[in-house]
């Protein structure tokens, strides 16, 4: 078998590759490690829960409606920390830059990264740069790693029957914004990427109630994230189709391109499993934040298996994880 693009797309095919990439016996530093395949690792240090994560970014195009590779690089790592309940503290940055890359574009990327850091109170404290010969890259690739501190670590596997499922906003924005832009559709401001650092949003939600599980629906989209949460938690999740927040413009673009908005990456959303008694308070906390104004309850957790969609016409169907992300190179 040889590696292909589907192996990096976040769906079931990527899971096959991870079976090879995660065969480490030294995979845990005393808490949550690589074996969990969560959004980050957690280990104890000096009486605190240290959260650690890393991510690499190869976005095409580098600049797109609503953001750029720099904003994704910071937001992606900050959000992975946040999904574990971690307040971001420090990030590193490794840049692979192709010979001939415009310095003015690099300045735009750095400024975008700095703005995102300011939004969540983190700092970029160390880094590395390599310049490669022309043709070795498609312009630039960025790796960011981050550390944070969690008062109480949150897992993506903590759902229990009775929990309420909340999404913090509209789904499919990022993936469809990238794809529409690539295909040359001039949609003006109708579809913009949702890329954003979510720590302050998550912090408000954590302060409002008991959150049992969190995940950001990036590669593979909501469909992949919700299936992973259900599988790891050993529960059934029932989703109401009419409750899913999808912009009309995103739904229309998806129909034109033959892409399900539930299968594409989001870069500024969180899926939460919340204790039913705290659901109203958590929802209000999300809605009070600028990145959570469209937050909504979309389903519930029950005993059983699978993710089931209760359709608008009164039927039921499974929400299956995608084989791979239909929009590659988006994050």
Structural topology:
Layout (H helix, E strand, L loop, with lengths): L11 H10 L19 E5 L2 E10 L5 E2 L2 E2 H15 L2 E13 L4 H18 L2 E10 L7 E11 L13 E4 L5 H10 L16 H10 L2 E5 L5 H13 L2 E5 L7 H10 L13 E4 L4 H9 L8 E7 L4 E4 L5 E3 L13
Parallel strand pairs: 5-6, 10-13
Antiparallel strand pairs: 1-2, 2-7, 3-4, 5-7, 8-11, 8-12, 9-11, 10-12, 13-14
Helix pairs in contact: 2-3, 4-7, 5-8
Description:
The strands form 3 sheets. A 7-stranded mixed β-sheet has the order 9-11-8-12-10-13-14. Strand 13 (307-310) and strand 14 (316-318) form a beta hairpin. The protein is built from 8 helices and 14 strands. 29% of the residues lie in helices and 26% in strands. It has 2 domains: 5-150, PurM-like, N-terminal domain (60s Ribosomal Protein L30, Chain: A, 2-Layer Sandwich), CATH 3.30.1330; 164-318, Phosphoribosyl-aminoimidazole Synthetase, Chain A, domain 2, CATH 3.90.650.10. The protein has helices at residues 12-21, 69-83, 103-120, 173-182, 199-208, 221-233, 248-257, 279-287, and strands at 41-45, 48-57, 63-64, 67-68, 86-98, 123-132, 140-150, 164-167, 211-215, 236-240, 271-274, 296-302, 307-310, 316-318. Helix 4 (173-182) packs across helix 7 (248-257) and helix 5 runs antiparallel to helix 8. The model has no long low-confidence stretch (mean pLDDT 92). With 331 residues, the protein is of the alpha+beta class.
